[in-house]
Specification:
There is one protein chain. The chain is built from 10 helices and 9 strands. It has about 240 residues and is an alpha/beta fold. The protein has a 5-stranded mixed β-sheet with strand order 3-4-5-7-6, with helices on one face. A two-stranded parallel sheet has the order 1-2. α3 links the parallel β1 and β2. α4 crosses α5, α4 packs across α6 and α8 packs antiparallel against α9. The chain is globular.
Length: about 240
Amino acid sequence: MLSDVHGALPALEAVLAEPEVAAADLVVVTGDVAAGPQPVEVLDLLAGLGARVRWVRGNADRELVQARAGRPSEHDVSNWAAEQLRADQVDLLAALPLTLTLPVAGLGPVLFCHATPRDDEEVVLVDSRPARWAEVFAGLPPEVRTVVCGHTHMPFTRLVDRRLVVNPGSVGMPYGGPGAYWALLGPGVQLRRTGFDVDAACARVAAGSGYPDAAAWADEYLRSRHSDLDALTAFAPRDGR
């Protein structure tokens, strides 16, 4: 499964070319798919997988739909991306569910969400305190023993009161090091990183995107200029601590 592609086509292509991904029964995408410099291309590539791909809504997906409806995002790239989308792509994003629960061999029912099961933009982190996890997991069915979330762009697995939490990291905007991060589920959990030619990817995004700041965007995010500690410091106040 993968998360937070953020309109980065070369990174997505690298992950989809992985043998385990090509052979997977399902590819679950936990949100923030298109808010980036190549939104149309990324959505078309994923939609081309047909019934093999299952989608969950992220806050950036919601913001694209809202921007298209006249409520701009605080992020310039999202406002630009929203204007590039075809009507069918806007409709696809508008219809995405907040959560999705699927059976996974060896894990049982797995709940997939973008940020938390109850909200598409609140923050939980690898070092969030137990009371915070209890709060965001309140009301989950007891049979759901694994929760997969994205949103913070940093991969981790941890136990929370006997429930396994998995964050695959980000395909297109990783914090902590370059590469496209994802996870393989069933019968266990493997956090994976796919390397690709970052120089070539940056050049391709700069040349192929109509976003005015595409080159700077690619340099910042595909090269992963922000460390995981930078991100943890920035996000920590948002997890209620």
